């Protein structure tokens, strides 16, 4: 937790600080997140980002094929978000 204080002000440190405090509630119910749950959460987030990146890449490739710029290595694909 000491490193998080040094990283104060960044979005990542704020996100980790919120997760850390909510995941370690040792109050009335004695809830605490286990190491296996942390690993599972990280893997789930990684899988989600990979699937999202694959969907974006499929759309980019389809747009590039429709524009005819697939064979040009330095061409900019005309795609909006």
The helix count comes to 3
What is the subunit organization of this protein? Answer: single chain
Rg estimate, integer Å: 21 Å
Element-level helix/strand string = HHH
Mean pLDDT, rounded to whole units?
A: 76
How many structural domains does the protein architecture include?
Answer: 2
Report helical residue fraction: 55-70%
List low-pLDDT spans.
none
Distance N terminus to C terminus?
37 Å
Q: What general form does the structure show?
A: elongated
β-strand percent reads: under 5%
Instruction: Please provide the count of β strands.
Output: 0
Structural class: mainly alpha
Overview of the structural elements:
The protein is mainly α and 81 residues long. The protein folds into two domains: 1-33; 35-81. Helix content is 63%, strand content 0%. It has helices at residues 2-6, 11-23, 35-67. The chain is elongated. The model has no long low-confidence stretch (mean pLDDT 76). InterPro entries: MFS_trans_sf. Keywords: Membrane, Transmembrane, Transmembrane helix. The chain crosses the membrane at residues 39-56.
Summarize the structure.
The protein has helices at residues 2-6, 11-23, 35-67.
Give structural attributes.
81 residues; elongated; mainly alpha; 2 domains
Question: How is this fold's topology laid out?
Answer:
Blueprint: H1 2-6, H2 11-23, H3 35-67
């Amino acid at each position: 937790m000491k490193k998080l204080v040094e990283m104060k002000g960044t979005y990542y440190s704020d996100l980790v600080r919120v997760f850390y405090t909510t995941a370690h509630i040792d109050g009335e119910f004695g809830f605490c997140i286990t190491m296996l749950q942390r690993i599972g959460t990280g893997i789930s987030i990684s899988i989600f980002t990979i699937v999202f990146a694959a969907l974006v890449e499929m759309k980019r490739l389809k747009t590039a094929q429709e524009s005819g710029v697939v064979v040009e290595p330095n061409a900019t694909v005309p795609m909006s978000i």
